[in-house]
């Protein structure tokens, strides 16, 4: 990569941060027109983009940024008041500027911002004409003063310090941008070092040399510290993704003519960068669905005795090694009867029995399932919840639904804080070692084979007073050497919890817990069912990482197989 390409990538990353900050602050400014800090933050961001674009020779981006900056300066000078018209204009300008930045950096054909710039200029001219009308009535005001004030409209004055996001505009540059691919490569190298450490430990134990053993232990400690530092360097605050959502909710509400109050909490929580990128699209689906299907119109809410403005909340919090993200609304709730009626019509369920919230979610998350008759620009194609579930499950997480008619709906997503490393229970099946993420394991127990019951075409065990389905992994993996496959003797069972579901799996042996570095499969292995990746153990051999979410949904047919044994 050339120096120019590196600078272009840096410009794009910086510009996107500033553009996200502009969109966030503009939405705040629309609801609080007197918020001077937001206005100053927007001005700082566009001023910085203009300077960077000019330095890089990106003339079109610099010209558009200057036009936006000039409108903002009119507002800062109190020549015009903040209203929906100018907010719409500035948001359109921000969108156009992002398109120009992306096209410029990627070497694509530049969109023509002439129409947007013309609208920005016309708005300023209207402001000047308003000033002229006021000045003509102020005989005591010297003409020189008016001319002087107008000349400052496009000038760049001092930008007041505000509560802008750390790292945006005028920052003390104490951070360095690192491509996450470099961090991934570094993590892989540390994983290789860990393997070497294991071999050295074995060698030191064989030789019995104390100095060698001490050196190996010291090296092991340093490797662990390096690993922790790399993991920390991958962590970023969730506001880097969350801050784009106020604009999304605002635009969706306006298209549907609904009043919405949107609140976020936990924005300073830090997550793995790769994980944060992966949850962006699922959150977009859930927020759009909340506006479109969850919230009622103002008239419907008034009839139900609710405030005219619906409420949507996006909350993030950490619980031990897991992160919880919830999207809630105080709308109409999911129409359970409509969902079940559609499910029966599609042959997904039989009978008229009761359905839990989680069973309702599983129905709604089926590919193509939708109760919406009219497809809109925002939703109704039957892809949203399917995308959400697949994405979160792919991260080793789960999705839960809570809904009450007339009260509202909450989607609760639980996932690991980082994708780079996890604690796992190692088990042996058919002579092979497998890793089960410890966040899903609840208990490892030994049972007499006679304690297994069969009903409804599958096996069950009693665990903590509950009847839990049993999945024999030796049979599933077609591991003929697995002692647990058809034995009525002692069973080694792991109780797993995934979302609100419980599952028991039988294995040959428990090997204990370890922290492992997970390496995802490259295609075509990425499509292997029930496995999310692999890890290399200190002895140099690989262990497959079991995807508990896939196990929980595995077909109930007793003859289902995943042939892996050689």
From TrEMBL:
PANTHER family in the cross-refs: CHEMOTAXIS PROTEIN CHEA, SENSOR HISTIDINE KINASE CHEA
Residue segments, region Disordered: 131-171
Biased composition (Acidic residues): 131-142
GO cellular component terms listed in the entry, alphabetical order: cytoplasm
GO biological process, one term: chemotaxis
Keywords: ATP-binding, Chemotaxis, Kinase, Nucleotide-binding, Phosphoprotein, Transferase, Two-component regulatory system
Molecular functions (GO terms): ATP binding; phosphorelay sensor kinase activity
A family per Pfam: Hpt
Biased composition (Low complexity): 153-163
Lineage start: Bacteria, Pseudomonadati, Gemmatimonadota, Gemmatimonadia, Candidatus Palauibacterales
Species annotation: Candidatus Kutchimonas denitrificans
Modified residue annotations for Phosphohistidine: 47
Domain CheW-like: 421-557
Name by which UniProt lists this protein: Chemotaxis protein CheA
Limits of the HPt domain: 1-104
SMART domains: CheW, H-kinase_dim, HATPase_c, HPT
Histidine kinase domain mapped to chain residues: 212-419
